[in-house]
Design brief:
Tumour Suppressor Smad4; globular; single chain; two-stranded antiparallel ribbon; two-stranded antiparallel sheet
C-alpha cells in the first residue's frame, strides 16, 4: 500500500506538493499526517522544470486509479494523495508518511 502524501513531499521533477484546493484548504489543513498537512487530489504541485512551471495553478495532483473505482480515503471531502500518484505535468509523488498507508490496487 502506498504511503500517504503530505504538503511538502517531493516529486520526481524536483518539485513539491503544496497547498490544497482553495475550497478545501481549511478542512484539509486540520488533518496532519506525520505532523504535516495531508495532500489531496487537487493539491498544487510546484514544478521547477521550465515548460511545466508555466502550468502554474493548473499543475495539481490527479486522481489515482484507486480513487476512480471508489477506493479513496477522503480528507476534507477529497481523495487523499499517495506516494506514486501523478501530477498534471507528469511528475510522481516520491515520498509520504511511511507510518500511514492508503490502500491501492
Amino acid at each position: 500500500m502506498p504511503a500517504a502524501a503530505r504538503t511538502g513531499d517531493p516529486t520526481s521533477h524536483g518539485g513539491l506538493i503544496t497547498t490544497p484546493p482553495p475550497g478545501a484548504a481549511a478542512a484539509v489543513a486540520t488533518v496532519l499526517i506525520g505532523g504535516l498537512p495531508a495532500a489531496v487530489v487537487g493539491s498544487l504541485h510546484v514544478c521547477p522544470l521550465p515548460p511545466h512551471a508555466a502550468l502554474g495553478p493548473a499543475d495539481v495532483v490527479l486522481p489515482s486509479p484507486a480513487a476512480a473505482v471508489g477506493g479513496a480515503v477522503l480528507v476534507g471531502g477529497l481523495p487523499a494523495a499517495r506516494a506514486g500518484d501523478r501530477t498534471a505535468c507528469g511528475a510522481t509523488i516520491l515520498t509520504g508518511a511511511q507510518s500511514v498507508r492508503i490502500g491501492g490496487l
